[in-house]
Prior knowledge:
The complex is a heterodimer. By secondary structure, chain A is an alpha+beta fold. Chain A has six helices and ten strands. Chain A folds into two domains: about 5-80, Phosphorylase Kinase, domain 1, CATH 3.30.200; about 85-215, Transferase(Phosphotransferase) domain 1 (Transferase(Phosphotransferase), domain 1, Orthogonal Bundle), CATH 1.10.510. Chain A has helices spanning about 40-60, 90-95, 100-115, 150-170, 175-190, 190-205; strands at about 5-10, 15-20, 25-30, 70-75, 80, 85-90, 120, 130-135, 140, 145-150. By secondary structure, chain B is of the alpha/beta class. Chain B folds into two domains: about 10-120 and about 300-335, Nucleotidyltransferase, domain 5 (2-Layer Sandwich); about 135-300, Nucleotidyltransferase, domain 5, CATH 3.30.420. At the A-B interface, helix 1 and helix 4 of A face strand 8, strand 9, helix 7 and helix 8 of B.
Amino acid sequence: MKTSTLFKKGAEASLYLTEWQDRKVIIKKRLPKKYRPPRLDEQIRTYRTIHEPQLVHGAKQAGVPTPLVYQVNVKEATIIMEFIEGKQVKELLNEQSEKERRHTCAGIGKAIGRLHKFGIIHGDLTTSNMILDHEERIVFLDFGLGEKTNELEAKAVDLHLMKRALQSTHYQVAQECFNAVIDGYSSVLGLEKAKEVLGKIEEIERRGRYVTERQT
Amino acid sequence: MRKPKNSANIGYCLGIESTADDFGIGISTFQGEILTNVRDTYVPAEGGIHPREAARHHADVAARVLEESFAESGVKPQDLSTIAFSQGPGLGPCLRTGATVARALASYLNLPLAGVNHCVAHIEIGKLKTGANDPITLYVSGGNTLVAAFDAGRYRIFGETLDIALGNCLDVFAREAGLRQKSGLPFGAVIEKLAARGDKLISLPYCVKGMDISLSGLLTAATNLLKQEKYALEDLCYSLQETSFSMVTEVTERALAHTGRMEVLLTGGVAANKRLQSMIRTIAEEHNARFCVVPSEFAMDNGAMIAWTGVLAHNCNMITPVEKSFVKLRWRLEKAEVPWVT
Lengths: 216, 342
């Protein structure tokens, strides 16, 4: 294997960029976390290493672009996968015009709709986990916190996370972006289902801390 | 505490804290020197904090705490330049008691009032005492558990608990275990001592959702195991701490990696826990960030942090007129203006 360079040091895993069998790949390595007890650490890393590729694969079946997974090593807690070239949606949104932004966000919403229709919860929907590749596809990354379920609650929490991510990273345009996400989402799941999820999101927000709407 | 210098040019702010079970008064100079930090904590005979009982306690001790703070600091009432109080978020009756004392003082001394956001104050006292400039803050207490950082005029919440606060989780478990709370020694400290003697990790639910966490399931599971009497209390405390602290540490590290900040600030009552400190220090070092932790006397709710934040507000001419000094029970951190931060 060629020498690898540290591409990104995330909180959960380190990503190394390298070449593997003549392909540009990312090695995602969940390094032991010194702060937590070894047994808990191993449980968490093993669980996520096994589940992430399953969800990445499931997402493809649902029609959502994700990187190809080439190799999984549970013992080492590493995943070798395709390197996606393109631009992080996080940066993209800050450069786009209002119309372009709406298009991007509707695309994101459609993809989330497809995932949910297939019972896949991403678990960490942020704009830094989405890449616009050279074929103009939005590729979803990092399913490490995801799960497979058809529960309404889980879907609503997932979309709620997306909303929160928009609010913290793109607060000037968060509302307009989220509205477009919902438009895309509804177009896949149908208005009725989408309304159900939106209702649940409201319920979750009311559960939130210090939410003024709860005061009556 | 140091006596203030005898100069007419030094401004003093008196701050009143009363969001929950603590009633505290602190006095800060305009330069950020804390001259006094007096506190009296309401300890319920049984169960958790009863808001009305806590408020009654605050009303009972207010005059004495005020006298003590003047005596200890050597500041006279007529030396004060401004009165700050914790305007929210918190328990209504408790907040109202503190606000009433603040209004009375301000109108008697004819001084401006400054309504301060309690969460902002925890961050500001941490910054003052550690020299942190632009940190990722993990604020963990009995009422709040959140990860925040300053961006575009506000402290933005990156992640928070979806249900109960970390301190609340530890408190309820301690009460269920029949532990006794002594005045001045919070339940968290009792659990920390027991946990230090445990070493068997019992599997408990670990729940991280993006940058948010959920603790209620963990609490229920831990309480159920407690009732089964299968495990040593020390091991349960150890497992509860390790699991919940790992969760908040993971989301803090995520925020750190996401924002690339160079400092991590640990503040709030649970910040006094040495185990949590060591976990946060570990991730700070791993990301080459400076680890900052609020000194323990300023970790729990206290008047000094309100006084210092009052100074910052005063410097920005932020005055809360009496008719707008009503308490805000659900005043989110993100809704508070902090024009002094740039």
